[in-house]
Amino acid sequence: MSRGLFITFEGIDGCGKSTQIKLLSDHLGSTGHEVVLLREPGGTVVGEKIRSVLLDKKNDGMDPVCELLLFEAARAQIVRELIMPALDDGKIVICDRFFDSTYAYQGYARELGAEMVKALNLTATSGLEPDITFLLDIDPDEALKRRGIRGDGDDRMEALGTGFQQKVRQGYLELAASFDRVFKVNASGTREEIFSAIRDKTESVLRERS
Ligand SMILES: Nc1ncnc2c1ncn2[C@@H]1O[C@H](COP(=O)(O)OP(=O)(O)OP(=O)(O)O)[C@@H](O)[C@H]1O
Ligand SMILES: [Mg+2]
């Protein structure tokens, strides 16, 4: 059986990742594909425990290197426990955030630098990379308005404010300029406009592989 397809979604908080992941997985499911939906940090029992430590606002004294290592620890688990086996089974894996988040948040916005992040990403993933990464690009003020509409309480990462989100956005844009697998989508459009770009790109990659 051929290896499955590994798709990741990236972008600042509130850019529309969950919304588009649902649309894409419904679409792929309805066209006969087996889809596995995962999120980072989390996805596994161990990873969800690490997630709650990372997002807990009470942990506001967390050192940035500690934060980086916790994200990578959760990643090591999800890659080996869930992502690699699903890809080996020929499934389509869609992951809500993956290692590009670590470049953008910890490497770029937290200024830990790309080299340290690259080395740890490689350790955590054993070299596994997404086939396609959708970067949903949006102005942080617009994303903040959307999150306001949703009415969620901020978690520890979201509570960092729009100045931090601006830096994260810049980090992501550098990645999009550097890697062909990163497909940037203007996320300020309607749900349907954004989804149409994502669906077209996914279908063209599936066609190339068949
Ligand atoms: N294209 C769109 N236009 C307007 N509102 C949108 C659009 N896409 C999503 N939304 C709304 O914006 C909010 C944030 O979207 P969503 O939860 O999908 O983002 P997210 O990237 O998953 O956020 P988080 O990083 O917090 O998980 C939701 O209320 C969602 O319904
Ligand atoms: Mg989400």
Topology:
Layout: E1 5-10, H1 17-30, E2 35-39, H2 45-55, H3 64-88, E3 92-96, H4 99-109, H5 114-125, E4 132-137, H6 140-150, H7 162-178, E5 182-186, H8 191-209
Parallel strand pairs: 1-3, 1-4, 2-3, 4-5
The site of adenosine-5'-triphosphate has 15 residues, from helix 1, helix 6 and helix 8.
CATH superfamily, by name, is: P-loop containing nucleotide triphosphate hydrolases
* Shape category: globular
- Number of beta strands: 5
- Detail the poorly predicted runs: none
Small-molecule binders here are: adenosine-5'-triphosphate, magnesium ion
Total number of helices: 8
Strand percentage lies at 5-15%
Determine the N-to-C terminus distance: 12 Å
How much helix is in the residues?
Answer: 55-70%
Instruction: Tell me the strand order in the biggest sheet.
Output: 2-3-1-4-5
User: Structural class of the secondary structure composition?
Assistant: alpha/beta
Major sheet attributes: 5 strands, parallel
C-alpha Rg, in Å? 16 Å
String of helices and strands: EHEHHEHHEHHEH
Structure explained in plain terms:
The chain has a five-stranded parallel sheet with strand order 2-3-1-4-5, with helices on both faces. Helices cover 57% and strands 13% of the residues. The protein is built from eight helices and five strands; from the N terminus they run βαβααβααβααβα. The protein has helices spanning 17-30, 45-55, 64-88, 99-109, 114-125, 140-150, 162-178, 191-209; strands at residues 5-10, 35-39, 92-96, 132-137, 182-186. It is an alpha/beta fold and 210 residues long. It has one domain (5-209): P-loop containing nucleotide triphosphate hydrolases (Rossmann fold), CATH 3.40.50. Bound molecules: adenosine-5'-triphosphate and magnesium ion (MG). Adenosine-5'-triphosphate binds at residues 11, 13-19, 146-147, 149-150, 190-191, 194.
